[in-house]
Amino acid sequence: MADGPAPAPAARAAGFPIGLTAATAIALAILLALGAWQLQRMAWKQQLLAHVAALQNAPARPLEPVLDALADGRDVDFTRVRVSCPGIAGAPFLELYGLKDGQAGSRLISACTVASRKYRTVLVDRGFVVDTISARPPVDAADTAPVEVVGVLRVPDRATFMTPPNQLQANRWFSRDAEAMARALGAPAPAPVYLFAESATNPAFAGLQPAPLPAQIPNRHLEYALTWFGLAAALAGVYAAVLLRRRKN
Predict the structure, then answer these.
(1) Dihedrals φ, ψ of 192, to 5°?
(2) Which residues contact 196 (CB under 8 A, 6 or more apart)?
(3) Per-residue model confidence (pLDDT) at position 22
(4) Does the chain have fewer CB atoms within 10 Å around its N or its C terminus?
(5) Low-confidence ranges of the chain (pLDDT < 70)
C-alpha cells in the first residue's frame, strides 16, 4: 500500500521583505544626507572661524567706506572698524536685555552720526551693564566731544517666536530692530548693522563693559555628522540582522 505524498519541508525560506527594504533604504538615505549636510556646515563654520580669527588681529578700518560697501551689497559682517562719534559719552541710549558670563543685564545702544554715501547713523552697542548695577551713564546733550570707537560690525539676529516683544515705553528691548531703535533714538537713515564697541565709549563709567568680538564660536558639526552616520550604520546592521534571521527560519 502506498504511503502517500511526501511531507512538505518543515521550514521554508521566507520571501524577500520588499516593504522593509524600501523603508530601510529611504531612512538610510535620509540619515546619510543629514550627515553629509553637517559636514558641509562644518566646512562653512571652519571658514567663519578663520575669518573671525583674522579679524581679531586685523587693523580697524574707517567705518564710512565699509558702510559704502554695505550699500553696494557687500557682506561686512564681522568687519573691524573705527569711527569718531561726537557726544557718544553722554548720548541717549536704549537698554537691550542680554547675558554675559552667565549674568543678566542690559546692553546700552546709542546712535553715532556717520557720513557715508547712504547711511547717516549707525547704532553702537556700547557695552554691557549687569543687573546688579542700577546706575547708568549720564545723558548730557551738551556733551559733543568726539570719542573714537573701535569695534566690530555685526548683522543682527532676527527675532524668533520665543523672543519677547520689545517694550518701547519702558525702554526695554529684547531684539535688535535697527529701524525701531533708530526711531526711538531719533537717528535718521540708520545702517542695518550694529557696531559692537571694543573700546570704552564712556571711560568715566566703569560699570559699562565693552562687548568685544567673541573669541570662540562653537563648532560641533563633526560630532553631529558622526551621530547621523552612526545611526545609519546601526540601521544597516539591524536590517542585515533581520535578513539573516529570516534566512535561518
Answers:
(1) -80, 30
(2) 125, 151, 152, 153, 154, 211, 212, 213
(3) 92
(4) N
(5) 1-14, 213-216
